[in-house]
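Progress report, Aim 2. The chain analyzed during this reporting quarter is listed below.
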Amino acid sequence: MNHRPNSLHISDVAHSMHPYTNMRLHEEKGPMIMTEGNGARVTDSEGKEYLEGLAGLWSVAVGFSETRLADAAYAQLKRLPYYHSFAHKAHEPSIRLAEKLVEMTPEGLNRVFFTNSGSEANDTVVKMAWFLNNGLGRPEKKKFLSRTKAYHGITIASGSLTGLAGNQKDFDLPAIPVTHLTCPHYWRYGEEGESETEFTARLLKELEDTIIAEGPETIAGFIGEPVMGAGGVMTPPEGYWPGVVEICHKYDILVVSDEVINGFGRTGERFGCEKYGFTPDILVTSKQLTSSYMPLAAIVVNDKVYNAIADNTAKLGNFGHGFTGTGHPVACAVGLENLNIIEERDLMGNAKRLEPLFQDGLRAFADHPLIGEIRGVGLIAGLEMADKKTKQPFGKPGAVAAKVVALAAEEGLICRNVYDTVALCPPLIVTEDDVREIHARLGRALDRALDWAKSEGLL
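Predicted structure tokens for the chain:
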């Protein structure tokens, strides 16, 4: 937080409402105001520079100062600053970006629908599934399967798919028919004496038993992040995803891969579904699609999904869904240039090359007294602050992780506490030196947090 109040600081406290924030606490503490970005680093209004260890919000692949994206936006603003895609209208940036996404995503995903955010995209997925099933004469096939600890957004429908209490309490969610299955996090939810293989088998049995109990004719889709992000960075157990797809397709249930965080190299492969050996019926992406320089998300579907939707639009005469900014030309121009940069500079390869250094360096903290588990893949990781034996947090849930994150900021590293987990997800442009600096700054923060925890009697 800023230590010296200024006009922006005062104005923010007086007028702004912040997401994911205790607003009364914000009135006391005020904001950390960022003023400049340069590569993998950002600078606040007091001139302090930070290594951005979360890529903004899991999203800024190319760093915070890519002039090619600014140039792409300006060029498009001058040429055609806005046009819509309703009622047979189109423009080149959205056409070219859709082509690019079909080229980059797994084979068989051939049609693209644009939205402004991942939340809107997953909300649209729900509506697409309902729309197509109504068109197929299956009006009862409307339920969704998700997982506890999942994060799929915060609109009414996507917030219902999300499996985090903090996103649902007092919002009257879930508000659509959704069943949340066991989170596929072996360390946390594996039973005493249960192997990882047995854990996978139990979760797959739970999935099939739930489908049978609910009735396959009532379930439209299963949605999941290949690597769960905002719930605490959980990687799936061996064999989990291929098993999920096999069971869902057995019962004619759509599989939706939420790649909003996973996509475009974050896991060391192009997409998380490729990392874990499955092809979804629907793939959702955002964040690194434009490196968050512009709001944009995309839903990429297979021919089965497209044809069912298209046939119903022929019956009704319309697909009555879309947004003013659907396929916005400036956002699409930025997205296309961003994907070109990712490919030209082999940033997906960079994530794969740096994975051993990044992950092994974090696992070097495994014996630290505050850490219960370290997990991750590619350039995304989570360090859970918990007792190694009991797996319980130290003191008030989330307190130690929040302290680590606060001290990391003092050390010049931005990361994020997700409940009891400290999450890291640096820009794909990071270098070996950047990765080592992340480790060094985090290590100092962990040691300072340990001293604090001891002084508070938490250990």
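The two ends are 27 Å apart (CA to CA). Residues 432-455 form the longest helix (24 residues). These observations will guide the mutagenesis work planned for the next reporting period.
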